[in-house]
Amino acid sequence: MELSSGSAVGGVTLNELPEECWENVLSLTTPRDVCRLSAVSPIFKSAAESDVVWQSFLPHDLESILSTSPDASILMSSASSKKEVYFSLCDYPIIVDNWRKSFSLEKKSGKKCYMLSARDLEITSGTPIWTLNTVSDSRFADVAELNNVYSLKICGKISTYLLSPETLYTAYLVYNFPPRNYGFYDQSADVTMRLNEAESGPRTVSWNPQGRRRHNNGSVTVYPKERGNGWLELELGDFFNAEGEDGELEMRVFDYIGHWKYRFILDGIEIRPKDVSRAAS
Fold it and tell me: Which SMART domains does the protein's record reference (predicted)?
């Protein structure tokens, strides 16, 4: 049966139903569905602007998350609606946890995304030659710059209760190469992911997207891709955050190959919902 604004259900036309009914209906969908419906149906257009609808897509613990952000008061005071708060958190990640992490929302679903800054990672090498510097295109105040090392290990940890439940996530190492770097062109590293007692890997990854394509014991090396802002992101692996999960996810990158490396900028590790459409293509 096809319904239009003039259709009747139980003697009442759809456009005679209270707007609160449509707000409740839209609250049971997704942000992407709401935007699509508001564009094609006058019934939904007004309800799609409601704070009731967009409040349902914001995390229930948003107040607690923003309590650790230096920019929370600016965000909340400048936004004129819950919809504006939502899209601001999608488009402009906000710094939380005393500058150690950033928080944002995936636009199409409202799922939580986090990025661990270089300050929030454990970075070890054969020689302690890491420095914290400021770069204009990072969301964080500091990035870590490697100057000259023989081997290195990068480790990040995050509590799974911070993330959205029943969600398949992917972790990415975000980094870049400044001019006059060396030691990364055709070098590989190993990656492991550990969630509570379950560990995956190691899998082989390449630092450089232009490195020589290779196979390792039948498995294909993973290469980084360029992000829209010019940084590189290297996929570390996937994990499913089950309902009620309250553990710790640990992500580790090892490069113990005996080879000197010079000039490498580490922005952090990003954890965001897996883009299934991209993976399928």
Answer: FBOX
